[in-house]
Amino acid sequence: MGRRYTAAMSVVDWLLDSDPAIRWQVLRDLTDAAPDEVAAERARVEREGWGARLLALEDADGLWDGGACFPASYAGLGPGQPWTATMHTLQTLQIFGLDPACQAARRAIALIAEHGRWEHEGQRYFDGEVEPCINGRTIETGAYFGVDVSPIVDRILNERLADGGWNCEAENGSVRSSFDTTINVLDGLLEFERATGGSAAVREARHSGQQYLLERGLFRRKSTGEVAHSGYLEFAFPYYWHYDVLRALDYFRRSGAEPDQRMAEAVEVVRSKRQPDGRWLLDHVHPGLVHFAVEDPVGRPSRWNTLRALRVLDWWHD
Known about the structure:
The chain is mainly alpha-helical. The chain has a domain at about 20-120. About 50% of the residues lie in helices and about 0% in strands. The radius of gyration is 19 Å and the shape is globular. The two termini are about 30 Å apart.
């Protein structure tokens, strides 16, 4: 993917020597490109590269790999979780920046609304199901692609736990929030707020979820101060439902929040992973079947991690 990185190339040049899904975001976030140039590059996501490849893999009924959360053929075998079903593909297309108004997006969303059903109990796709981590991601992509997901938002607001966040295990008796579920809900509520203007209740819930993360320095247990999970310090892409501090910091950046000193240690984790040549590596890949790779192997320089880390650090310093 792209030319070999040389000392004569800047990191931004290296990022631009890539797929339209990355190029348009680099132009928007790391250069002084004109809005028309950014929009023209973004429009290519539908027609070229990774975005076009994912769209070409859509089934005739609008789903990917025959299922909502899992492929139709999934039998619970193999390492990890397969990432080829509709939910994960829609999230990836959103991260790529597929224009919600483009013909391919409108067609896909209409077909998913008509045919998509959750494996849980056959609920209609954009009605959501029972797990807040799944519903948070459904809110995010639904709101992004112009679907009315307010009923799922109402459900999510009522499922917030006493410590301010959310946990998919609440239905099994958990009374403590989780980092992973909370970031999925926060991403969803932020996108819903952007799409609709939100409400006082949505803003209050999002604030409480943010405080849950901030009180833990974005990666530590509140009770002991220990690192809650070593994986939170490893940067994977795509991240799917998984949490890490780079994803969390990029959420705060997108939300328009002011930098908070409780994030400082997490920011230092990001800074410490910068290589001498100015790039970040791919630390981890979440195991499971994928449509195709969008990164070089683990341990190699990662365009997605580099892009996200650079804009987080720019936000932090500004």
